[in-house]
Amino acid sequence: MVDEIYVGNADIDAAGDAGWLLGHFKAPGDPRHSTDVEIKWGVHPAGDRRARWVSGERRTALLILVSGRFRVELPGRDVVLARRGDYVVWGHGVDHSWYAEEESVVLTVRWPSVPGYAVTG
């Protein structure tokens, strides 16, 4: 069924929704709509930093480095992703933030996709 197939480009599509390619925030009926998982194609210039730490996390996350050098800040430790394919996983209740040490591309997968959950500012 054609309506169940979407073909796109992560660089182009990510620009329209803060990097998020798939999740609850896509319109129902869009093949990219999901309440189970969220996927983000994050393109970050060197020096880009999350506006503030996420606290009270209710999801599990996997972050994979595609290119660049990217630091994930976790309670009591930082994880530097420096080689293509380096990744980190954290679960429920793990506060976190991030910083792009170099221009970086990262793929983030979070689950479940939680409506209304967003960090602003």
Structure description:
- The chain has 121 residues and is mainly beta.
- The protein has one domain: Jelly Rolls (Sandwich).
- It is built from one helix and eight strands; from the N terminus they run H-E-E-E-E-E-E-E-E.
- It has a five-stranded antiparallel β-sheet with strand order 1-2-8-3-6. A three-stranded antiparallel β-sheet has the order 5-4-7, with no helix packed on it.
- A hairpin with a 2-residue loop joins strand 4 and strand 5.
- The longest helix has 5 residues.
- The radius of gyration is 14 Å and the shape is globular.
- It comes from Micromonospora endolithica.
- InterPro entries: RmlC-like_jellyroll, RmlC_Cupin_sf.
- This is Signal peptidase I.
Care to give the gist of this entry?
With 121 residues, the protein is mainly β. The chain has one helix spanning 10-14, and strands at 20-22, 38-44, 60-67, 70-74, 77-81, 87-90, 97-100, 104-111.
Question: How are the SSEs ordered, and which strands pair?
Answer:
Blueprint (H helix, E strand, L loop, with lengths): L9 H5 L5 E3 L15 E7 L15 E8 L2 E5 L2 E5 L5 E4 L6 E4 L3 E8 L10
Antiparallel strand pairs: 1-2, 2-8, 3-6, 3-8, 4-5, 4-7
